[in-house]
Design a protein that fits this description.
Endonuclease/exonuclease/phosphatase domain-containing protein; alpha+beta; 14% helix; catalytic activity; 16 strands
Length: 235
């Protein structure tokens, strides 16, 4: 299985062909258009097997897969007390494992934006058995706040307790917050670079030959302020 996550920075209908040579089985794409409402015929034909959520038809969260892969939506809750958390797209892949696609953002929350959205989501959906967590978390340990209980580190601890590991950190041996490879470049500025896009997988699923690659910003900066992150897990 080859899984890619990429925040395309909008206008995915003009950019999807850039991913074709990467030959992914599953693509988790943030800020992409809803193929159902698109008027771009080539994008509609390309997106023949997908799930999508979003409040804005031009900027949502999509999971796109090769034709032979079955994506089944999962009815996980996004209601935390009197709040709705966005954007999380859970699905079952080939009846083999769960995939939780993520795009963490502010959601107009004065206190629980970004990683706080994922923290809330994991409180109401604690059963993470056989679950991969993939996407743009808009978060890094460097932004932890000492007196806040839903920091990046707190979310990492929840995943760790469920046996779900960050593949980048597992394979590189680097610590959270000390990543040498960056995935996001604010204002496309190489001096404002951060690691905020992740692939988490149950360690029991990890093949001995598994790899994770963060692509080069110079090759992608004309398309987005994020670079694709590629996880290959072949036995």
């Amino acid at each position: 299985m080859k899984v890619i996550t990429w925040n395309c920075n909008g206008a995915f209908r003009k950019k999807f062909t850039a991913l074709d040579n990467l030959d992914a089985d599953i693509l988790v794409i943030q800020e992409c258009e809803n193929p159902e409402t698109s008027k771009d015929e080539s994008y509609i034909q390309w997106a023949s097997n997908y799930l999508w959520i979003g409040r804005n038809k031009n900027k949502g969260l999509g999971v796109f897969a090769k034709p032979h892969i079955r994506l089944t939506p999962l009815q996980w809750s996004n209601q935390y007390k009197d709040h709705t958390v966005d954007y999380f797209l859970p699905c079952r892949v080939n009846e083999e494992f769960n995939l939780l696609a993520c795009w963490c953002h502010g959601n107009n929350s004065p206190t629980f934006g970004y990683i706080g959205q994922l923290w809330k989501y994991l409180q109401i959906n604690p059963n993470l058995e056989n679950t991969w967590v993939v996407g743009d978390l808009n978060s890094n340990k460097i932004w932890d706040v000492w007196d806040r209980w839903w920091n990046h580190t707190d979310v990492m601890n929840i995943l760790d307790k469920n046996g779900i590991m960050s593949i980048y950190h597992l394979l590189t041996g680097e610590e959270q917050g000390m990543e040498s490879k960056k995935t996001f470049f604010l204002q496309r500025n190489p001096t404002k670079a951060y690691h905020i896009d992740y692939v988490f997988c149950p360690i029991s699923y990890l093949a001995p030959s598994a790899t994770l690659e963060v692509l080069d910003f110079d090759d992608w900066k004309h398309l987005s302020d994020h670079v694709p992150v590629i996880f290959e897990n072949y036995y």
